[in-house]
Amino acid sequence: MALDCDAELMLRVKDGDGASFALLLEKYRASVIHFLYRMVQDQPVSEELAQEVFLRVYRSRETYEPTAKFTTWLFRIATHLALNWLRDGKSERGQERLDETVEDAPSREVADRTPSVEHQMVQQVKLEEVRRAVAALPAKQRAAVLMHKYEEMEYSQIAKVLSCSESAVKSLLFRAYETLRVRLAHMA
Amino acid sequence: MNCPIKTEENKEWLLDYAAGRLDGERAVAVKRHVEACHECARFVDAQQVVWNALSQWEPQAVSDDFDRRLYRAIEARPVSWVDRVLGPLQPLLRPVVPLAAACLLIVAGVMLHTPQVAVNPGDSQARVEKIEPEQVERTLDDIEMLRELALQPAQEEKASKPL
Fold first, then answer.
1. I need a surface site. Which of A45, A105, A142, B127 has the fewest CB within 10 A?
2. For range A88-95, the mean pLDDT
3. Cα of A141 vs its chain's centroid, Å
4. Mean pLDDT throughout A107-119?
5. Numbered residues of chain B with Cβ closer than 8 Å to any chain A Cβ
6. Quick check: B62 and A30 CB within 8 A?
């Protein structure tokens, strides 16, 4: 099996090359944090979980075997941590945050550089609706959608991350998108 | 091509088409079908709404000190000696763990199902009360007899020794 370049970097980390770990961190820091943020919808928690992900990657360097793509392994760790966090009911605080008023939500950059107040508010409301719709999905469906949409993963890779069959992933995605189509239909 | 919605075949092509991720001949085939199939066209339109809505969700920026915190955690939590010793053996130990767990379960099961003699304090008391004085006397006689038997060989040995 031909090794992907990330797996090669990880094998160098296994050999004690700290610079290769720094490269992997640089490459995947944002995507792991963003994935976790969209899963748990809490910025400090997503960074804490991401710290744990990279810590586990580093700690497992000696036993690392490139049996799958590096990103599959990486996102399997991230998904596992996020699902555990959600399962343990630690998301209650996050849900409270979702219930906060739109004005309380942190400001985000929008495409228009000089947006009117009205436009900004409309954007915030839309964003809030998207967040709520995603948060309402069952955790596994949510993970599948996030990997499909934002990480642009193939169905086969999502299946490996979630340890299920490809057809199960397609089924998860169809159910999730069906829910989202209903909830976000008015955004057309 | 067959209608993905009606036949439930390759439904994911519609998702990929709506996301603009379908290439080549497949994309052309789906496009042609969607243009002709009202149901699939509606599905693709609705899916594109979801796709665009999700695209608006930009995550927040990562904290500047993320790496510093990570490296500090790496240094602060050195690998325990157990991990150091067992780490390289993990692939070998992995199949042993369920086996050991199964053995433990069997041992626990056997211990739980072994009939145990119930100690009833009332029984022992009753037995003590049943001991008759004759029985005690007989036991004392037996002890005396055993002592004499033990002394006899020693006396015989002493008598047989030359002066």
1. B127
2. 64
3. 12
4. 64
5. 11-12, 15, 19, 21, 45-47, 49-54, 56-60, 62-63, 66-67, 69-70, 73-74, 77, 79, 83, 87-88, 90-91
6. yes
